[in-house]
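Troubleshooting: if your tokenizer reports a length mismatch, compare your output against this known-good record of 161 residues.
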Amino acid sequence: MDDASGEAAASAGQRSDCRTGTGTGDSALENQTLSKRQMKKLLKQQKWEEERELRKQRRKERKQHRKQQRQNSQQESRGDGQSARKHPRRELTPSSLRLVVDCSFDNLMLIKDVRKLHKQIQRCYAENRRASHPVQFYLTSLGGQLKQSMDEKDKGWVNWK
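Known-good structure output:
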């Protein structure tokens, strides 16, 4: 009885080896014992490997096509006297509104809050510059922690108009 159970275990082990492809049988035998999912994966991988050169060629063609389009657009833009990247300056109509940010309360703030305020001021300034109707933007009582933060993080703020 022990021999029968040992033979059954040995034959089950051989079957599991054939199914996973780790057995020593030929490829035809392994293909027959692979599961459907394993066969699909194997075929998909083989197809992927076969089409590698085709994908590489397509990538090259797309790259050349994009390069050609860029060159054509640059030639067209040079004819107008404007570069493709620069946008023509639009007419700004200044607004009579004034925006004043009072910075005298920065001594009551934590340094973390001062840095957040600095970022908010930067964002306001940038959006105001891009606006079609920019307002007059003023910072008052600038000093203390906020001025120090602006000097450390953004040295160009002194050139703001």
